[in-house]
Amino acid sequence: MFxxxxxxxxxxxxVSYKGGDPGFVKVVxxxxxxxxxxDGNGMFYSxxxxxxxxxxxxxxxxxxxxFRLRVQGTARVDMNDELMLEHxxxxxxxxxxVESLWPNCPRYVHRYQKVKxxxxxxxxxxxxxxxxxxxxxxxxxxxxARDQGKAAGAGGLLTVEQWFGKVAxxxxxx
Length: 174
Known about the structure:
The protein has helices at residues 45-52, 160-169, and strands spanning 2-7, 13-18, 26-29, 32-37, 55-62, 67-78, 92-104. The protein is mainly beta. β5 (55-62) and β6 (67-78) form a beta hairpin.
């Protein structure tokens, strides 16, 4: 996992969490790293920001050791990148030309251990469950065509309050 910083259309910085199975970020060569864009909230916020301003920052944190690594570079997203074959359900691949990187002081990094991987990370050996928020009743008309009607098979519709209740309790369905 890492945190991706990008610049929105108003010139404001924003940060997004990016996660996947180990190895989802790939060192392509001495100056390039790549990672997949998976289905998110449908806003394509990070992807859109990169299209408008390709300057990005990336923060990798190892909470076990602890260790931090900062990366700055220029990104581009390609929906036909050859690495798409390595990432089931990827909607695009971001390649970042690294302009600078450096380790960052770990002294305030809290020590954590991963409990379990996200069930929503696309994997070749199983079907990816429908994201919990895609079961919210009021968002149904706005879902992509590929997700229309899937809520019934994923446990039924939820109200916004029910979904936020699942988020608050730490439910895997959130």
